[in-house]
Specification:
The chain is an all-alpha fold and 283 residues long. 54% of the residues lie in helices and 3% in strands. It folds into 2 domains: 12-128, Recoverin, domain 1, CATH 1.10.238; 130-268, no CATH class. It starts with 13 loop residues before the first helix and ends in a 13-residue tail after the last helix. This is Defective in cullin neddylation protein.
Amino acid sequence: MGFLKVSKGSEPPKAQVAQEVFDYIYEQFPSPAGSDVERFLEIGHFESLAIATCLNLEDLSLYVLAFAVDESAKRIYKISEKHFVAWMAGLLSKLSRNAAPPTRENAYAPLFAAAHGAIVDLNKTIRSNEEKRSKFYQFLYNWCLKGNDASDRVDSAKELWSYFFSASPVSFMAEEGCHKFTAYMCFPRIHQWLDFITILNEKATESKSRRAAVEHSGISFDTWTQLLLFAQLDNYDTYDDEDSWPVAMDDFVEYVHELEESKKNVVVANAPVFRAYPLRELH
C-alpha cells in the first residue's frame, strides 16, 4: 500500500528553508561583509524581524526572541546566522503537518507564526520560573551592555530596567502575562533608581577614565546583577553598607534617605502654625 503515501521528496530540507528565512530578513537591510565572515542580524534588521514575527520594538519581546535563539549570546545586539538558522530549523520540525509550507511566496508566514508562538511560550516560562527569569535578566546585560562603549549605554540600561521592572506589584492573568513583555519583577523604587542613575551618569561624564565612568554611572556588571536581589528589599531601615552590596546601592540608599528627609522638612515648614491668643473678658 506504499503507493497511497504522500511523497515529500519534493520538499526542501529543513536546513535549507531555515537558511532561506535568514536570508529573507538579512537581505532587507544591506550589511557589507566578506564571504568568509559570519553574518548577523543586527539593529538594522530588527524592525523587519519584529514585523515578520508580530513582535514589538517598544518592549522586550525581540530581546526574548534573541534569548530564545542563543541564551549565551554576547555579541552586542547581534543574532548570529548559525544560531538563527538552527532555531528556525527546530521550529520547522514542530510545524503541523496541515500547515502550509513556508515559502518566499507567503513570506514564510507559517514559520514566523511558529516563532511568535515559541516566544510567547518562552515568555510565560520567564514569568513563572525564577531561574529562567534571572538568566534572561543576565542575558540583557551580556547582549546589550557588556563591552558596550556607546555614548547611549546608560540610556540603554535605563530603558531595559524600565521594561523589566515595575513600580507596582506584578499581577497578570495567565493569558495576558504571556503576551506582556514588560514588568517581570516589582521594584517599588524603580523610578527613583532611574533618576539616581541619571545623576550618577552626569557626574561620571566628568571622569577622564572610561572604566571609572562605567563604574560610577551605576551600570557595572556587579550593580546590574545585584539589583535583582536589591529590588526585593522591603525598606532600607536595616540596610547595612558594610554588607557586600555594590557602592551604587550604598549611594542610592543614602539618596533615598535624603529625599525622605527633605520631604519631612517640607511638610514641617508648610504645617499651619496655631498661636495662642489671650481670651478677652466678656462684659
